[in-house]
Amino acid sequence: VIMTPATAGNTWFARESAVAYMSDADRAILTSTMNDLLNSQPDGTTVSWKGPDSDASGKIAVGKTHQDYGTTCRLIKMENTAKGVTGAGNYRLCKDDKSIWRFAPLSNIK
Questions:
Q1: What is the mean pLDDT of residues 76-83?
Q2: Phi (first) and psi of residue 95, to 5 degrees
Q3: Contact by Cβ (8 Å): 38, 44
Q4: Which of 87, 95, 97, 90 shows the shortest CA–CA distance to 76?
Q5: Residue 33 has pLDDT above 50, yes or no
């Protein structure tokens, strides 16, 4: 997953969510935690993360793994808090041709 300030500002789920209030260090921890979860943990795993120098924190649960668009996709439930703002939602991520996880529409689940 690539989570930069520009991504947070331009991704629909992130514009008004806790991600928009996170520091670069917070987003780096969130991204690292999410990548580890998506790449190496079985369905049903939940992990938590905490920003190194802030009140930012969250938890991510990975659900169903499935194939779509000729690649691996995974469903996640994510809840994050930063600067008193909490955001939560269900998302789907699929690997692109460079094996980077990208957010994908939930409506195309097979």
A1: 95
A2: -75, 140
A3: no
A4: 90
A5: yes
- Which 3-state string (H, E, C) describes 3-53? CCHHHHHHCCCCCCCHHHHCCHHHHHHHHHHHHHHHHHCCCCCEEEEECCC
Q: Are 88 and 77 in contact (CB under 8 A)?
A: yes
Cα distance between residue 17 and residue 22, in whole Å: 10
* Residue in the structure block whose two tokens are 């930012």: 56
Position 7 pLDDT exceeds 70: no
Tell me which residue has tokens 């269900």. 90
Amino acid at 6: A
pTM of the model: 0.80
d(CA 30, CA 22): 10
pLDDT of the residue at 16: 62
* Mean pLDDT score across all residues of the chain: 85
